[in-house]
Amino acid sequence: NEIPHNEKLLSLKYESLDYDNSENQLFLEEERRINHAAFRTVEIKRWVICAMIGILTGLVACFIDIVVENLAGLKYRVVKDNIDKFTAKGGLSFSLLLWATLNASVVMVGSLIVAFIEPVAAGSGIPQIKCYLNGVKIPHVVRLKTLVIKVCGVILSVVGGLAVGKEGPMIHSGSVIAAGISQGRSTSLKRDFKIFEYFRRDTEKRDFVSAGAAAGVSAAFGAPVGLLTLGCISLQFFASMISTFTLNSVLSVYHGNAWDLSSPGLINFGRFDSEVGTGIPHGEGLDTALRSFGDINLSIISICRYIHRPCLQVVEAMLVAAVTATVGFVMIYCSRDCQPIQGSSVAYPLQLFCADGEYNSMATAFFNTPEKSVVNLFHDPPGSYNPMTLGMFTLMYFFLACWTYGLTVSAGVFIPSLLIGAAWGRLFGISLSYLTKGSIWADPGKYALMGAAAQLGGIVRMTLSLTVIMMEATGNVTYGFPIMLVLMTAKIVGDYFVEGLYDMHIQLQSVPFLHWEAPVTSHSLTAREVMSTPVTCLRRIERVGTVVDILSDTSSNHNGFPVVESNPDTTQVAGLRGLILRSQLIVLLKHKVFVERANLSLVQRRLKLKDFRDAYPRFPPIQSIHVSQDERECMIDLSEFMNPSPYTVPQVTSWQGVFKLFRALGLRHLVVVDNRNEVVGMVTRKDLARYRLGKEGLEELSLAQT
């Protein structure tokens, strides 16, 4: 019963979020009651929420960093002592078994909690948050349980020695923190703190989730200014600043430098001097872009695996962890690249078969956390690495990273990309010195920085923002131009072949994701050709039984219903009067806001927006609401609750126009009407997302219940 991923399908299991406010009578009355003082109070609450998001995101990042540092340090010390012991008396196979067993055991726990408790916590979570901000409701993506599993899972993945990083998942973690704080309650814990009730709707929640994602990026890289290039608003920038400051303060105290503030992010590249020029040739960006293309394709192969049973996913993760340790051990064992230990900054130097006072250079790359390996490649002096050592490490780590991406573990791809790029970039710099007969154009560490930037740029396809982030992480603006050069080259070459890694991940999950622009070859289509029809409409004064039957119909499962004006005693349908959502109808039925047919003039129970916000976001299913046979004959007046001014388009509107309106306004439903204002169709996200630009022009995807 396993269903393989298929990028030619569009899944019907994903619902859209309501980013367009329903401006019904209840909403307008509440907005009119908000005076200037109340408005100021709401704005102050926004700033308070963003400050809380920044503080908690920074604290979570500190927790991850400190726990990883201690657990990974303990593991490497145990393995190092064992290797040193058996190097002298023989039997290094026991050291290999110990290393592989420790890795597999730790990764097994991390994979178990993801596979069996919260599968959405797998990976970095960036594609899922990108979909959420695009308007797609990904189940469980911003739950408290997801945050707990994500944090524990990423700690275990990094400590388990996988080719992963802990920085990418911070974006997902920050988003979950923001979603929880902004609502003032936890549906998982069933606790309502009765605060921030005004923000309990998708529009407000999205803004705070974006602030949480910004705080996560800032905590990962210590680069709040770089987020401004992504168009972040002041609240998001404020949250990212608070996150960086919190992380910096706590880690500085933890490391015994309370007033130094030298740890702005989880990954700290260290400061680069400007004494040596950075003559970075164009070939570096081109070469790393081509490697990014290969990385993307091999990563997609990893995603497309046909292993869907949780138990097999755990076994696979354990296998990869054991293979990673085995490859690292064999590479270290076979390497004869020995460097003097004096003056080096190696955390866990392995002597192995080197002479006294020397250490194995290959071990600095494999026998360490990926973050520290990146810093070593950036700052180790020239001559610290043999070209053969870097070449073999780059090749093997490349395939390990591609195999690891897509495992059922919580992990990010940022640090593996930086490490691969740094190794290849340093190798490129060393090769230049050989080709020019010892004339060093620049420190190999500078080439490592450019390679890391280009490799990461080929994955995420960002240019300006990533340039600023890299400059902030290095603490030197001198490298702005060469970093921009390699990032632009990487993006151009990568875009020529395939989309970015996260975009391809979204396609493989069959998510109805809408890009900023419509396909360029879609001018011939109109709203009439893409709309869904026939449309299930409700009358302004409708019979309760009819509403219950429509909501209970599993074959349609619609979430928005046009409201039309008509006489209850006739079947003649008149023009459009409004739009009402399934969630609103559920609340009306739950509170039984209806009257008997003979007493339509009676005043029904008055609902408030608070009743709808209390039910948000987990509205009860229609099956849980009991409606008696007598109640089915009652009538319900939708006038007060429907949106009387929904967005509409004529059926002759071009597909490009429909797409721009839908995408720019964050709509969930767009009603198509004829020249008499009668409803003829409905455009939803799936109607637009199913058309995509393929190799042979515009192609239509198939819809499937997967």
Automatic annotation (TrEMBL):
- InterPro entries per record: CBS_dom (IPR000644), CBS_dom_sf (IPR046342), CIC-7 (IPR002249), Cl-channel/antiporter (IPR051280), Cl-channel_core (IPR014743), ClC (IPR001807)
Q: What is the lineage of its organism?
A: Eukaryota, Metazoa, Chordata, Craniata, Vertebrata
Is the keyword Disulfide bond assigned to this protein? Answer: no
Locations listed in the record: Membrane
**Could you tell me the keywords of this UniProt record?**
CBS domain, Chloride, Ion transport, Membrane, Repeat, Transmembrane, Transmembrane helix, Transport
- List all membrane-crossing ranges: 47-68, 96-117, 147-165, 208-230, 237-256, 317-334, 447-471, 477-498
The membrane topology of this protein is: Multi-pass membrane protein
Tell me which residues make up the CBS domain: 642-700
Question: Primary place of residence?
Answer: membrane
Give me the Gene Ontology terms describing cellular component.
lysosomal membrane
Per the record, the similarity remark reads:
Belongs to the chloride channel (TC 2.A.49) family.
Database matches in SMART domains:
CBS
* GO MF annotations in UniProt: chloride channel activity; chloride:proton antiporter activity
| UniProt cross-references to Pfam families, sorted A to Z | CBS (PF00571), Voltage_CLC (PF00654)
Descriptive protein name: Chloride channel protein
